[in-house]
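Wed. Picked up where I left off yesterday with 60 kDa chaperonin. The coffee machine is broken again, so keeping this brief.
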Amino acid sequence: MARENEGEPYLSLKREATTGSEVDESLAALMTNSNAIRAIASAVEGTLGPKGLDTMLVDKFGEVVITNDGVTILTMMEANHPAARMLINIAKAQQAEVGDGTTTATVMAGVLVSSGVEQVAKGVPVARVIEGLRTGLKRALEVMQEQSRPIKGLDDPLVRQVALVAGRGHADIADLVTRAAVLIGEEKLKDRFFKFSDSIVAEEGAENQVFMGVIINKERMNRQMPQELERVKVLVIDDALEPEEIDDEALGTEAGFTRYLKLQEEFKDNLKKILDLGVGLVLADRGVADPAEEILTDEGVMVIQRVANKELRKAAEHTGARMIKRTGLKRPVAELERYLGSADRVYNDEKLEQVWVLGGKGKPMATVLVGAATSEVVGERERIAKDAAASVQAAIRSGVVPGGGSLEMWVAREVEKVREGIRGMAAYGVECVVEALKRPMAQIVANAGFNPLEKMGDVIAAQTETGKNSLAVDCDSGEVADMYENGIVDPASVKVYALKAAGEVAEAILRIDTIIKKREDKADSSNDTFKV
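Structure written out below (C-alpha cells, as returned):
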C-alpha cells in the first residue's frame, strides 16, 4: 500500500534480539496491522449506501476502472501489507459464498480491529477483548438469523426489491434478473451448486434480454458454415477434433508410419459417424483439424473450436449432451447417439461475435444479456447485474432482512444488553461488536450528506419507541423511515456472512503479537538475519 514509507514499512518500537533479529513489540504490531486494515476499509466505505460514490482505479499503463463495487476495488487495488491481504481474502470469500456484502464486511472488520486495538492500548488484555468479541458476535448472529423474513415464491415483490437494492437502483437490470429467476425456477436457485450470477453476460451494443439458452463467446470457424440452424443435434467434444497424435521419432519408423496412416483413417471414419448421426453443431474444447473443418463445412455443420471449458459445460448441460473425448468417437454409431444433445435453435451473431444456443433439451438455463452503450461501462454493468443475481439467489435461500443499516442498529441494542450482564474486561470486547454494528448506518448516513450522530440518535429513539427493527434513515429526505415499506431489503445470509467474516478477520489480526520478516532462502545462509 502506498501509505507505507519505503524505508520503514512498519510502525515499530524495535528491540535487538540476541540473535540479531529485529522484532516488533506486540503493541506496535497491533497498531501497524490496525492501520493497514483501516486504510483498506477507508478505500471502500465511501461507496456504501444509495448515495455512495464511485472509486477510480488506475494501472501503470493508465487504464482506468470506475466502479462502486467493493470486491472489485479490493481485488484490483495494490495492497502489500499482509494484514491488508488477509482482509481482501475475506472479502473474496464473501463474494464466492454469497456474491454480495463485501463492503459491509470490510467496513465492520475495520471497526472491530481498530476498536479492539484501542481497548488493548488502554490496558485490556487481548485475550479478554477476543473473549468479548466472540460473545458479542455469537449473540449478534443469533438475533440476525431470528429477524429473517422468508420469500413467498418468485412472484413475491420482495424479489425485485432485493435485485433493485443490490443492483444499485438500476431498474432495467432488476427487471432482467427477476424475469430470469422466474425462468430458472425456485428449485434450481436453491441448488447449492448452481450460481445464478454465472448466467449474466454484458455486451457493448447489445439489447437487454433474458432467454432460455447459453452464449458461446466464439464464432463459427468460417463464413461458409451455416449462420443459423433449427432443431439441431449437438456434439460436445471435451478435446481436440483432430487425429490422435504420434511421436515424431516413432513417425520415422515403418511401424510408426503405418500407425500414423491407421490413425488418419480412423479419424475420417469418426467424421463420417458425426455426419451419419445428423449432427448440426459441434463444440470443441480445443482445435479442429483442417480436414475436419473442410468436410463438416461441406456438409452444413456449424463448428466452434476452442470453447472455454465453463461455456462448454454449460452448453452440454443445457442441450443434454454428454461431453466426449476424441478417442470416444471410436464407439459404434448407436452408442454415440446417447452422447448427443439437442437445441431448438443455434444462431451466430456476427455483431456480438457470439453463438447462441437456444431451447436446449437438457436442464433449463436462462441467460441474462445486459446491454451497455460503450465499452467503458460494460464491466460495471456486468458487475451490477451479477450482484443483483447473487442477492436474489441468496434471498430465495435465506429470506430477507431490512436494509439501510436498520437491522445492524437493532442487533447492536440487543448486544448492548449482553454487555450489561458481563463482568470483567470481556465487556470491552463486546463493546467493539456494538461499535462495528453501528458503523454501516453511520457510513450510509454520512455518504448521504447527513450528520451520523444526529440521525442515528433519531433511529435509536424510533426503534425503541415502536419496537420495529426496520427503521432507518431515508437517504433522500433524512427522515426516519420503515425500510420494509420503502422496499430497502437485503438477503439475510449476506448480513450474517458479512458479520461472521468481519469477526473472523478481526480475531485473526488481534491475535498477532509479533511480526517477523521471513529469511530468504540463499545458498549461504550463515549471515542471514530476521528483520521486520
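Quick read: The radius of gyration is 29 Å.
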